[in-house]
Here is the input.
Amino acid sequence: MLRFRRTLFAVCVGMTGATLLISGAVGSAPSMEPRTIPGELSDSSRYTCNIDIKGDRHNCVGRVEATSTVRGEWVLAVDMGEDRFRRLDIYAEVCMARDWVLHLADSPTANGFGGDSQTSDHDAEAYVYNGSDFGFDSTGDYTRHEHQSRMRLPRLLGPSRHGCRVVHMAALHPREHKTSRLEFDATDASSLIIGSIHGLKLGYEACASPTDPGRSVDCDWADREQRDQYQWHVGLNRTVGSSARNGSGVVRACVSLSRDADSESANCLQSLALR
Here is the structure.
């Protein structure tokens, strides 16, 4: 069992070739004050858009597409681009969270607790569920017949002293690197960094066979047409792949994309400039 203290560092080896690096610190949290960040800059180094779930409006065009906006439950398809962005930051203002709150997935059919109906071997995902629990599932290692690495951290989001809180989740995959990272932090909560060759990835080849040694890391057998290789997906108040796994709590959110995998965006939540 992992117990978070003021400072903590732990290493967990989940499967052959996959290492999860986990660090946590209570105290540092995103500010609740909104900061204005422009949209895609002239040099195309960053893209930012905002979603007002309460007001049922957004200003996401181009790179981020709202594919479902039913009853305050949103799904976003994010096109990172082959030669464009390597980092996605999602900030969400969460109030009175219940059930499935926030979901970041590598596959459009990922629906929590691992697996994605075999539309893609690259199906890593991270999520906040039960209102306060955190979960992470890596891809499986198909050539070694090893299951996904799974992390469950109950009540990672304890009661907030501020009523509402900002939850921040990021996925980043540096160019030419096999290892990607998942980062998580929130108001009045511990922070996490998870690094794995079986995490959310950008770019892969078509596997030559189901037993290709690079399957789920460098290549994909289920998605041999590579439709989803530069796409990531976000669920707000539901999972990406299933409307049956839904919840509430996110009232507004923003998505920020960056060319530099190590360039974390500031809190981009804002209530203005929405269409």
Notes: The chain is about 0% helix and 40% strand. The longest strand covers residues 87-99. Residues 171 and 182 are 5 Å apart (CA to CA).
